Amino acid sequence: MKTLRIRVNDKVYDVTVEVVSDDDAPVATNGAPKTAPKATEGPRPAMPSSPVARSTSASAQSLDAVTAPIAGTIQKIFVQVGGHIEAKAPALLMDAMKMDTYIYAPRSGTIAKVAVNPGDAVRVGQLLFEYEEEA
Q1: pLDDT of residue 12
Q2: Do residues 11 and 65 both lie within one domain?
Q3: N or C: which end of the chain has fewer CB within 10 A?
Q4: How many domains does the chain have?
């Protein structure tokens, strides 16, 4: 058994894990015990901090595009083109791995485009909706 400390979204969990096989176990080579090299703590790859990304298309350079943070199926859409939404209000409801997941508005604004419909299967990073340009 090993006790591991796992950090998820700045929350720390101590877990106990049963070791079935261990790649870090000492390996005998020519009679001399040897241990596998430990992973070094290096720079982590950059992870998106928010599902909001700047649109890069020439026709929509000033629109904020909200993309899917997870893969799933669109269940309900709470926004409509021309409608106003407040920051942190639910914009969509997705089903991902049999769990309801709400996608919240990252900021207040008017909706310019809704790119999905109920029942659509979406991939990570797929456009969900866009805001109108701010004045």
Answers
A1: 82
A2: no
A3: C
A4: 2
